[in-house]
Amino acid sequence: MNTRISAAGRSGLVTASALLLLVFFLAGVLAPWIAPYDIEAMDLTGRLLMPFESSAHWLGTDELGRDVLSRLLHSIRLSFLLAVAGTVLGAVIGTTLGFIAARFGGLADDAVNAGVDFTASLPFIILALTIIAFLGTDVTVIIVIMAVYGWDRYARLTRNLARSAYTEGYASALEGLGIPTMRIAFRHILPNIASALVVNMTLNFPGMILLETSLSFLGVGVQPPMSSLGTMLGFGRDYLTTAWWIAVVPGVVIVLSTLSMSILGDYVQQKLEPASR
């Protein structure tokens, strides 16, 4: 009976997490149409209104009289867009380099392994700040930083699984039949390792959200007039004692989104990789 209740509880938790993430994604996608105000629209006569204090501002206003709900919707949109773009780009780069290392070995394998070890050994925030110092604080640069943050995991995973394919012999046999290397990679090897890559992407996504939040909180991430969850949190830290909602509202969204994605990632891992149970 306890096992059944526990299984039902886990199922409900996964369902709730998936629904919450769906709500956040839809809120971000529809932000330009459902946000009641422009994110930079100021009303100095309505500064620091508490949530539900005014029917015109459900989540209150900030220090400049800007609507917190509108800024939150657009911040979710930008933060999730950056996280998705960084996750996908990191997966593409890491998977490609991992396959190259497995296929050609030798110097290529050594170079990829050296890059993986370098990325893993260096505190990433230092590497991120170094990249920003040279390239500036642009949205494209932030996406590149996010890709650099996650590429080594995909490279290591792809290299090991692709090497297994060549060790087992079926990939080498296909090459012996004259099938191009890229076709072997996309048609035969990639489908066999896709489940592991998907699991890695779902587990890596919360880290992308937290990375963007950290950089923007420090003032080196998303810059005004754009708004992200990290910038809202950064601006709200100066008003925690007088206007707590400016920082707490985006903070709650950050916690719920990363927690929900972690729960969903664990569920995907259990379904796609039964050995991890």
Molecular structure report:
The chain has 277 residues and is mostly helical. The chain has one domain (62-276): MetI-like (MetI-like fold), CATH 1.10.3720.10. Helix 3 (68-104) runs antiparallel to helix 8. The two termini are 20 Å apart. Helix content is 75%, strand content 0%.
Can you give me a brief rundown of this structure?
By secondary structure, this protein is an all-alpha fold. The chain is 75% helix and 0% strand. The chain has helices at residues 2-29, 31-34, 68-104, 106-121, 124-135, 139-168, 170-176, 181-217, 229-236, 245-272.
Largest sheet: none
Helix content: over 70%
Q: Number of helical segments?
A: 10
Task: Determine the CATH superfamily.
Answer: MetI-like
Q: Tell me the β content.
A: under 5%
End-to-end distance: 20 Å
Give the mean pLDDT. 85
Using only CA atoms, what is the Rg? 22 Å
Q: What is the fold named in CATH at topology level?
A: MetI-like fold
| Second rung of CATH, namely the architecture | Orthogonal Bundle
Q: Which outline best applies? A: elongated
Low-confidence stretches: 1-5
Write down the domain tally.
1
Order of helices and strands: HHHHHHHHHH
Number of E-type strands: 0
Q: How does the helix and strand content classify structurally?
A: mainly alpha
What is the CATH domain class? Mainly Alpha
Oligomer: single chain
Domain ABC transmembrane type-1: 76-265
Protein name: ABC transporter permease
GO biological process, one term: transmembrane transport
InterPro entries: BP-dependent_transpt_permease, MetI-like, MetI-like_sf
